[in-house]
Structures are given as C-alpha cells and as structure tokens.
Amino acid sequence: MIIEPRMRGFICLTSHPKGCEQNVKNQIEYIKSKGPIEGAKKVLVIGASTGFGLASRITSAFGSNAATIGVFFEKPPVEGKTASPGWYNSAAFENEAHKAGLYAKSINGDAFSNEVKQQTIDLIKADLGQIDLVIYSLASPVRLHPVTGVLHRSVLKPIGSTFTNKTVDFHTGNVTEVSIEPCTEEEIANTIAVMGGEDWSMWMDALKKENLLASGATTVAYSYIGPSLTEAVYRKGTIGRAKDDLEATAFAITDSLKDLGGKAYVSVNKALVTQASSAIPVIPLYISLLYKIMKAEGLHEGCIEQIQRLFQDRLYTGKPIPTDEKGRIRIDDWEMREDVQEKVAKLWLEATTETLPAIGDLAGYRNDFLNLFGFEFEGVDYKADTNEVVGIESIA
Ligand code: NAD
Ligand code: NA
Prior knowledge:
Layout: E1 7-8, E2 11-12, H1 17-33, E3 42-46, H2 51-64, E4 67-72, H3 85-99, E5 104-108, H4 114-128, E6 131-136, E7 142-144, E8 151-153, E9 163-169, E10 174-180, H5 185-195, H6 198-209, E11 213-223, H7 228-231, H8 238-256, E12 263-268, H9 275-278, H10 283-296, H11 303-315, E13 329-330, H12 338-350, H13 356-359, H14 362-372
Parallel strand pairs: 3-4, 3-6, 4-5, 6-11, 11-12, 12-13
Antiparallel strand pairs: 1-2, 7-8, 9-10
Helix pairs in contact: 1-2, 1-3, 2-3, 2-11, 5-8, 6-8, 10-12, 10-14
Bound molecules: nicotinamide-adenine-dinucleotide and sodium ion (NA).
Domain Enoyl reductase FAD binding: 323-385
GO molecular function: enoyl-[acyl-carrier-protein] reductase (NADH) activity; NAD binding; trans-2-enoyl-CoA reductase (NADH) activity
Catalytic activity: a 2,3-saturated acyl-CoA + NAD(+) = a (2E)-enoyl-CoA + NADH + H(+); a 2,3-saturated acyl-[ACP] + NAD(+) = a (2E)-enoyl-[ACP] + NADH + H(+)
C-alpha cells in the first residue's frame, strides 16, 4: 500500500507509519543533542501520543532516562485503513525506548473514564510503584463524564457578542472574514467540563488515594494565552473559561498534595500547529504570521523545543520554578515578546489572499500540518510500499 495524505476539512484521514516513526526519531535526536536533564525518573503522561504530550514523554525518556507510562486515545490500523498518527507515534516511541533499555508502556483508551484510570493505577502498582511527574496534556472535543454519564461537547466560541475577524483556509490560502456567534451559558459549562481542570484533579486524587505519588511529586498541565488578536475567540471565549478553570485547579491540586510536598503547575505554551489548534478559526492565520516572524528572528520552536526548554530551563534547574503573577510557568515568553507581537499585529492588517504567501508562512503551516500525520519528512521513502503494521505490544 502506498499511503498518501487524504484531506477532509481540517483533518487528514490517513497517516504514514514510517513518517510518524521519523518524526519521533527526530524528536529523540533533538533531545539527545541538548544533553541530559536532571528530571523525574518515573513519569505518567496523560495525552502522550501527539503534540506537547508526546514531546513531554520523549523529553522525559531521552533527556532524563525516565520510565514512562503513556495514556492516549488513538485508533489502531484496521484492514485497508491506517492508524491515527498518535498510534504510530507511540509504537515508534516504545520501540526506541525499549532499544535504549527504558521502561515504556502505554494504555490506549478514554482517559476521562474510571476504567482507564484504574488500568493505569494497576500498571503503576505492578511496575513502577510511585510516580514523580504527571504531565496532563489532553486535548479533546468531548468528555463522557464518569460520574453523571453526561456526554459534554466543547465549543470554540466567543462569549457575549459576535466575533468577526480574518481567517485563512490553510489548504487553499484563501483569506476571508469569519463571524462566530456567541455561545450560550450551557456551552460555556460544557467546554469547562471537557477542557477544564476537573479530570486533572480526578487523576491526581485517584493516584494519591492509592499512594502512587512519590514525595515531592510534580504535575504539569498545559495552557495557552495568546495575543489580543485572538482573545475574543480564545482566551476570552469558551476555551479560555476552561483554561481559567484548569489554572485554578492547579492551586487546588497543590493544596491536596501538601502532605507529600507535591506541587501542581500550569505551563503556558506557544501557539503551534496541532490537530487541535488547526480546528480553531482565526488561529491558523495568526500562526502563519507568527511563524514567519519567529523564524526570521531565530525564535521559532516546535513542540519538542518548547518542552525541552520547559524541562531544562524551568522545571529542573535545581532552583525555584519561575512563575508569573498568576503562578503560571511561561514558556510562551518568546511568542509574547512585545517586538514579535507588534510585527504580527502589523502583518495582520495587511493579510489578504494575495499578500499572505509573501508575508506569512503558509508553507510552514502546511508542512507542519502534514508532519502531524507523518507526511513530508526527509529520509522517508513515500513511494515505497508500506505493508508493515507496527504493533504496540503492551497496549491493553
Ligand atoms: P494534541 O491533539 O496533539 O494531543 C492531544 C492528546 O490527548 C493526544 O495524545 C490524544 O490521544 C489525547 N486524548 C484526546 N482525548 C483523549 C481521551 N479521551 N482519552 C485519552 N487521551 C485522549 O493536542 P496538543 O496541542 O498537544 O494539546 C495538549 C495541551 O496543550 C492542551 O491542553 C492544549 O490546550 C495545550 N496547548 C496547545 C497549544 C497549541 O497551540 N497547540 C498551545 C498551548 C497549549
Ligand atoms: Na498532547
């Protein structure tokens, strides 16, 4: 079978096992090139198969020789249909970790469920004893609530009034104006239920109750702020309310970990092309302008560079972890630099279908998007027949 990208809207229906493997190998090489990090040795990553979570797992394993358990929700390959990219990424990660003599096991299932939490607890008990770092990196449009049985759906909408601004269809390069109607109160509550902090605290409570957190255990969840350009639809929209809730939850978790000397943090990360962010209106146009500026200034980072810097320069320096006035770790510092934001805001006014190819990094956006699915990697023979189905042995 020759696997090619098959696009439908904001998603790609196919993914390339060899390309996903190459993606993971590149990230591992990057981490090795940056030298060791005095980090955690037993790490649980919830949302470990793509984006920031995958980068966190790779950084822990190949930066600090950590044993890792990864939890994610991915589709295995079936006859005539490729797996989801996170499935291939995780297969490749496990192969590389095992080759390096590192413990690595994965659980593929709904992290919001009691069953997957219990499976994870059993695995930690059997294999690792206690965990010293929990990374919480879920991005999901839905959550089946484990107590009420309600299926919550998140929405990406402004609050209070209609938001109108430019957006780009990054496949065609067409810049148009988009209007998004404001949400209802119920939609705010649903978005908080999916992307807020409740599930994070459920995980931490469950682990603590079973005595599976080491003394001084740390947990980190990821957030985003971004510029005033995207504020109405992001930080001051429904998703922003969920992030406010997530950030508040960090303090509650820290309280609950006091007797262990443990601590919960939120790290505010940079805007990057992921499956989640491509679906948010306005954000792809912002990212394509941001990439252009940050690349020109030598400030560009992908997920792995962000997480490497988070671990090496923030979490594991041996000194207190620097935070902003709201207690958040800021690794979006380069994105939010005043000079960078000024330049992006100026380009924003100029952006049209005609100007964008020159003033924005649409090519970089598309390349990163295809990379998410294992396409467009150097060193991969995309013309070769890919019959091989890579297995993740330890997945339950
Ligand atoms: P992603 O889509 O690449 O990764 C999401 C992960 O969650 C995957 O491993 C997926 O398998 C897993 N997942 C989703 N639903 C699940 C479920 N029900 N059970 C188990 N696993 C499930 O997303 P990402 O962009 O890496 O986002 C991770 C976090 O980082 C999110 O909180 C996001 O808001 C935040 N963030 C993203 C950006 C950005 O620009 N992409 C910037 C800052 C912060
Ligand atoms: Na992730």
